[in-house]
Amino acid sequence: MKYTVSIEIALPLETVVQLLADSAHLPKWLRGLVLHEPLSGVHGQVGTRSRVVMQMGKHKFEGTETITRREPADLRGIPKGSVVHFDREIVGEGMWSAVRDRLTEAGPETTLWVSESEYRFSGLLMRLVGLLMPGSFRKQSLQHMQDFKAFAEQGKDVREAKD
């Protein structure tokens, strides 16, 4: 299963990528995050492996995230016209996914974030979930992007949201 979602954020590219790359901010916008801890490497750097635990309603997901691409490596002084890439793979029980994020300037004070996701399922339960509820994965990805936008632009913290 593959899909692409995108969102515009009313902040300059460099500001957006620095907020996105800072692990201290993850709990503020990544709804359902229980744990994100590096197992090896430095958060956000290529090759870093992290344990990720997400809680979505009654469902808990645990997996290993590996950063597969981050360009440029230094997120300060990004040249005009650059494309910033954040790619990662996540492996969990019955599931493998790859997320490829591209961030570009949409205007002088606006950033376009395009996220491509690919999922592969193994095991009967996860194959059924992928087959019966493909829209829920896309919806969740878009929710994370909207939560990041609200955090970046207005300082909103998903932990304070009234669900």
Automatic annotation (TrEMBL):
Pfam families in the record: Polyketide_cyc2
InterPro entries in the cross-refs: Polyketide_cyclase/dehydratase, START-like_dom_sf
Name this polypeptide is given: SRPBCC family protein
Organism: Rhodococcus oxybenzonivorans
Taxonomic placement: Bacteria, Bacillati, Actinomycetota, Actinomycetes, Mycobacteriales
